[in-house]
Amino acid sequence: MPVMLVSSTGTMRKHPHETHGYAKGWAAAKSAVATYLLWESNEHRLKHSPISKIKNSIRVTHSALTSKGPTPILTAKMNSLHEELTIARKTFSHSTHSAKNKIAQEELLTKEFFTTFKSRTNNGDIAELYTTASWDAPVHNQDNTTESDKGILKELRKYYSWLYSEKPSLENEAPRG
Q: Are 37 and 96 in contact (CB under 8 A)?
């Protein structure tokens, strides 16, 4: 792949902000840069990765094994190369996939992005909930709670019905400046 230079004017010509908004042009430019970086990191990994060097040695040794037949020296070399490959895979974790995941964690609105904010010890279940007779005038009494699933659902339904219901606007109470 040849080196791609991203020109802001070329991208903006293809996606004028008057019709597409600014986000479309930036998304196209960001996609081109991400593709270029993934390609470059793949090329670098293939040239400089110890894993690719070991895999290449395994291929050469395997072709020698098939052409000359199994010998104790070649078999021992093949076994040691497989052990080296296992160790290298554990220590050398850079890849295009990890680079793409890093971008997904930092910038894209993906599952990886939102898991960074999620508490590891957070429990999503509601074990107990305070009950309120009326959400128009809530009274917080710590003695009135419900622990049953039906009671919790009833209280949440009551709260969300109140939250999204129409409420009168009181203009006289609004501060005027």
A: no
